[in-house]
Amino acid sequence: MLKKVTVGPAGYMPQSAPSMGVELAPEGSALLYGNTVTPEEAMRDAAIALLTNDNPTIFPGPQVLWDWKEDVAEKSAAILELASEIPNCKIIPMPDYRPKYPKIDVKAEINPNHPNLTILDNKIKACVFVGVHCHYANLSLRMIRAGTSCYTIALCAYMGHEEAMASIRDLHASDITKFKEIIIEERNKLGIKWEATLPPENPSLEKEDNSTLSPADYGEYRSLIMTKKGEHITDVE
Hints:
It contains seven helices and seven strands; from the N terminus they run E-E-H-E-H-H-E-H-E-H-E-E-H-H. It is of the alpha/beta class and 237 residues long.
């Protein structure tokens, strides 16, 4: 197989995957190194990468962090099960894409403007993007390919991502479960002994105390939670 999209570092201004002739996989297919393959083939290569590279990490984005539509909770539960089967896997959530200056806590978050900092600081050699909005995923995946030697995997609910080494499209919870089962199969083939366990809490995250919050703490969003004059709230979710 001629690999069009490969693990970097590809340089400061790498050629974009579409400019190298990579097209989005048709429905029912996946991408592997820029080539159209079956989803299982892409999952198996990605599974081996997660099992054999240092510091495998999952970056879940807003589309799976917030329970905003019917199938999200099921997907999120499947992602946790997937992480539990990858030895020493970490989870670094990506809830907010806004640039964070002058610096970010690269142990706890990823900044789409400088995603390579998080990858390099944590010495991540294989990562999964899931639930990340496509425009941010494409930007971040290309930057990671440009400046790091990290194998990237994109699990996408829509049409997938040309910039990832392995890209699965039209993602449902059942696809994540299938990926988990393939990881278990490949882990057994490699003779890796592992007892499924959830990743530990991120030690760099500060403990939150929400008991003293008031509407003023929500800044410009306080109007969304404060009652209006004459309004009476009788029921809440």
